[in-house]
Each structure stands twice: as structure tokens, then as C-alpha cells.
Amino acid sequence: MSDIPKYYKTNLIDIENCKKAVNKAKVVTLCHSAGGRPVYMFCYGKQNVFRRTANLSSALGGHNKGCFADKTSMDYIPTLLLVGCVHGGEFEGTAALLNLINIIETGYDLAKTKFLELKSLCEKVNLLIIPCINPDGRSHIPFDSFIGKSFTELRYYNQGTWADGTLCGWPECKLRHPIKDYVDYLGGYFNDDGINLMHDDFFGKKADETQALFSVCEQYVPDFTVLLHGGTNTKNCVLGPAYAPAQIKKRVSQLDELLKSACAEQNLEYYVAHKDSDYGEKKEIPVSFNLPSALTQLCGEPCVTYESNQGLTDCPNGKGYSYDEIYSHHLILFKTLIEYLTQKRPV
Ligand SMILES: [Zn+2]
Q1: pTM for this prediction
Q2: What is the pLDDT of residues 256-280, one digit of tens each?
Q3: 70: CA distance to ligand 1 center in Å?
Q4: Residue 347 confidence (pLDDT)
Q5: Is 199 helix (H, G, I), strand (E, B) or coil?
Q6: How many A from CA of 90 to the centre of ligand 1?
Q7: What are phi and psi of 57, to 5 degrees?
Q8: Count of domains for the chain
Q9: Which residue among 7, 18, 84, 91 sits deepest, i.e. has the most Cβ atoms within 10 Å of its Cβ?
Q10: What residues pack around ion ligand 1 (CB closer than 5 A)?
Q11: Would you say residue 2 lies in a domain?
């Protein structure tokens, strides 16, 4: 008998079932993964018209970002892009996103709890929800929750094993890319071609899943993009794009402060990761230019990683949260993001 709560749905069949159940969302198949699995985006709201006359680089070069995406019209609606399961063994966000979809559709989450305030908040923005951008990686994990599992199990299934059977681990699993030809067990980090989407070849030929995200960001220019991850037993936190203009880093800090207060109100821990650091960009080995930096540069708006606690039983970096704590953290994140985007925007 599983002790996974009924509302905690994270697998690819759950996403298919969600797709069949929705009435309000327009569901788009963005691409098929390296292993041929569909990647879905659930769209709520209406797409803004940007009157684009230049790409972002050229628009900024001409000192007018509006030539890339004019967001000044009276009927402009802020857009939020939420992306789950970038790494296949990190589906805490997927569980929360499937609940969020249910809340938008019915006013109730999958535990049948009423969320009318969050539902009406969601109606104030365009919401683009990708429950699982890495379905291949998700298919490499043969169960639906890491809560109550060990750190070793997470490492085995998420980062996989080298050809000799030893654990790849983090961050060493990043030292072979694509990793496919070096492994015995291909972990959830990777699509079936062994690509870690966070570190794809952004200036070269990209995986279709990465290209799909690029296309969404270019087309919709989301005001905020959040890539949902799990980070073992970390305190939940936002990791901003390392390579970004000061205005964007400022907006990430503003969100960070709001999340800190919102979590404190509910007696939940929150870690402000980038209080006054340079994000590691000036270290001797500079921080990598990864997917959040790439998407930020592509659309000129903040794209961040959100790290969630994964509820492991034993972990060097902290205690495991419960299902309810992990879920509550994500609902706070979604609510805070929408409140932030619908306030008068800082320039
Ligand atoms: Zn991750």
C-alpha cells in the first residue's frame, strides 16, 4: 500500500490523464523528446501582440526593447511560464503543476481542497504550464515519489551509473556530455540521447526539448520563467540566472524577498540564495552559462531555477520535508509570482 497522497501525481500517465480532463486549457504538443515522448504545454489566457520589428539584441542595440516585445499596450497581460521536471528525478514541481491546472479548471486541487483565491489570481495572467519538459528522463525513474527514499536511491536514479556500475553523482555526471555512451544506467537527468537540458549546446544543435523551450520564450516573451527542480534536501530557494543584466538580477532579488516573507508567514523555511553575491560569475572557474541564463538572454526577461526539497530520509544537506510542506512551498511560489507580475512592474 503506497503512502503517496492521492493529490501527488507525477508520472507521464498522470499528465496524459490531465490533458484529457482539461476544458479551459489549450494544450499544445511542443515537440517529441529524443525517445519519442510528447512534451505538452497547457496554455491559459491569451497571447499578447508584440509588434516585433527586431530581435532582442538589435532592439537593445537600438535602445528600445519594445521593438522586440512591446509590452506597453493597455490590454497587455503578464505571462508566466512554469516548467516542470527539467531533470527527470525532480518531479516535485510536476505534482504541484498538475494540482495548479486542476485549481484553474475547477477551483479545487487534486485533494479536493478549495482554492478560489488562487484560481482568480491565475485568471489575471497568461499561464503557460509545461508539467514535464523531460519525459525521457521522467521515464528513467520507475516510481512516483522520492519522499522517504534515500540519498543513494536519488543518485542512482537521477544521475545514473557509469559503465562500471559506480554512481555518476553530482556534479561529476556533468563531465561527460552527452553522457549516453559512458553509462550503465541512464539517469533521470538526461533525455534518451544522454543530453542534460540544463547544459545543452545552446549555440549549436540543441535537443528538441531545449529548442521547444527556446521557441516558447521567443514567441511569448514570458515576464518570468521558472524551471522547477528538486535539490535533494535543500531549503527551497530560487537560483537566478548567472549571466543577466542588473535589472533582471534586481527583479529576481525582489521575488526572493517576497518568497522569504510568504514562507515565513506559513512557518516554512526559505533560503535566499543570492543575497549579495555575484552569482559565482567572477569565480576562478566561472559559473556555467546554463539554461536559465540562455533563456534570460533569449527573451530579456528573468528565467530562474527553483530548487525544492525532495524529502529524502538521509541527506548531507538537511532534513527532508513532508508531502504537504513540499506542495505548500510550490503553491506559495505560484501565488507570489502571480502577485508580483500583476503589481505595477518595476522597470
Ligand atoms: Zn535539477
Answers
A1: 0.97
A2: 999 999 999 999 999 998 765 556 6
A3: 33
A4: 46
A5: helix
A6: 6
A7: -60, -45
A8: 1
A9: 91
A10: 87, 90, 229
A11: no
